[in-house]
Amino acid sequence: MRGLSGARILAVLIKEFIQLTRDRLTYAMILILPIGQLLLFGYAINNDPRDLPTAVLAQDQGPMARSTLAALVNSGYFKIVRTAASPRELDEAVARGEVQFALTIPADFTRRVVRGDQAQILVEADASDPAATGGAISALASLPRVALSRDLVGPVAARAGASDPFEVVIHRRYNPEAITAYNIVPGLLGVILSMTLVMMTALGVTREYERGTMESLLATPARPIEVMIGKLAPYVAVGLVQTVVILVLAKALFAVPMAGGWLALALGVLLFIVGSLALGFLISTVARTQLQAMQMSFFYMMPSILLSGFMFPFRGMPAWAQVLGSVIPVTHFLRVVRGALLKGLDTAQLWPSLAALGLFVIAIAGLAMARYRTTLD
User: Fold this and answer.
1) What is the pTM of this model?
2) Where do runs of H (alpha helix) occur along the chain?
3) What is the C-alpha to C-alpha distance for residues 271 and 355, in angstroms, rounded to an integer?
4) Between β-strands 166-173 and 101-105, what pairing exists: parallel, antiparallel or unpaired?
5) Helix or strand or coil: residue 167?
6) DSSP state letters, 115-154
7) CB within 8 A of 103, min separation 6: which ones?
8) Averaged over 297-322, what is the pLDDT?
9) Domain 52-173: which topology?
10) Is there a contact between 100 and 133 (Cβ–Cβ < 8 Å)?
């Protein structure tokens, strides 16, 4: 038996480095993934969201009401982005997810504070994601003590005494018990469908290239669109079965509320399944090995999990990360699923997210067909 040869080991080592540089996709993954993870976890992920969008219905325009609003903003957790004209407008803003909080200051707020007559303000929170509202709700506990510190002077201060000048009534909507499973389990539907459908399609088509069976398929009279539909149709059924299983288990095991919105949910699921399969098909036209297909699928999955609002509050991310997250289809699908199941929203209320999913399907399917024709040539 021959001993170890440093020269032979060096030759093999050099050969592997050369092969690595030739495989540009693997080389890019080695460099981009660590940098991407560092930037996302370091800059984009935040479990204590600030400047959460807030709508206000101020029926009292007095100085004490203005001081209360100023103290709310100064806490750093709330950002007033909308002034509502009616309770219904306030309710719709929260239901559609346009704001995270809704504040109502009643018309008799100042009069009750001055009289020491149990003044109240109402804060409604979209608590479907408990992590997004926990810090802000905790900050509301100190609001009555600091908001009117400069307004309560003289006899008014004496009447208030040691008690708080007003009470903050908090209404946690859609998830009053702050059960994390109500937010995570519906979100898992988007993650599971992405992981299975994108990767299964990408690997399935790439496997045909590796085994040489794609040449036989290309020799048939089938047109590219027919090949694409034929290969993706079985996976549509797989995705629908997965959806039914996840929803049944979500209700049976975790008691996730099923508030309705079934038409919007069905349309969102169908668009997301087709879009995920088209993305997998597009990946297969770029990758030439199953390893490359898996790497590209993983490269898509990482931002989908981190930037979509599945694991971390979407509004806790900086503006640039929210822009990137809005490009990811999983973000819009999660809004459809959670909006339909937890809030009972219909297609009219969820149309922006449904339109984004439809645009994603058209764009990715078009690119996949263009790439497929290129590989045929």
Assistant:
1) 0.85
2) 6-22, 24-39, 63-74, 87-95, 109-115, 130-139, 143-147, 155-160, 181-193, 199-211, 213-218, 224-254, 262-286, 290-307, 319-327, 329-343, 347-376
3) 10
4) unpaired
5) strand
6) HTS-EEEEEEEETTSHHHHHHHHHHGGGHHHHHTTTT--T
7) 54, 55, 56, 57, 69, 72, 78, 121, 122, 123, 124
8) 87
9) abc type-2 transporter like fold (3.40.1710)
10) yes
Q: State whether residue 261 is helix, strand or coil.
A: coil
Residues spanned by CATH 3.40.1710.10 within the chain?
A: 52-173
Provide φ and ψ at 115, rounded to 5°: -85, -10
Residue 298 confidence class, pLDDT cut points 50, 70, 90: confident
Distance CA(332)–CA(338), nearest Å, equals: 10
C-alpha to C-alpha distance for 183 and 204, rounded to whole angstroms? 32
Q: What tokens were used for 229? A: 């539909």
Q: Is 314 left (phi over 0), alpha (psi -120 to 50) or beta?
A: alpha
Backbone angles phi, psi at 136, to 5 degrees: -65, -40
> What are the tokens at 291?
């390893």
User: Which pLDDT belongs to residue 249?
Assistant: 94
**3-state secondary structure string across 53-110:** EEEEEECCCCHHHHHHHHHHHHCCCEEEEEECCCHHHHHHHHHCCCCCEEEEECCCHH
Q: Describe the crossing of helices 329-343 and 319-327 by its angle, rounded to 10 degrees.
A: 90
pLDDT of 168 reads 93
State how far the Cα of 373 lies from the Cα of 226, in Å rounded to an integer: 12
Element (H, E) at 172: strand 166-173
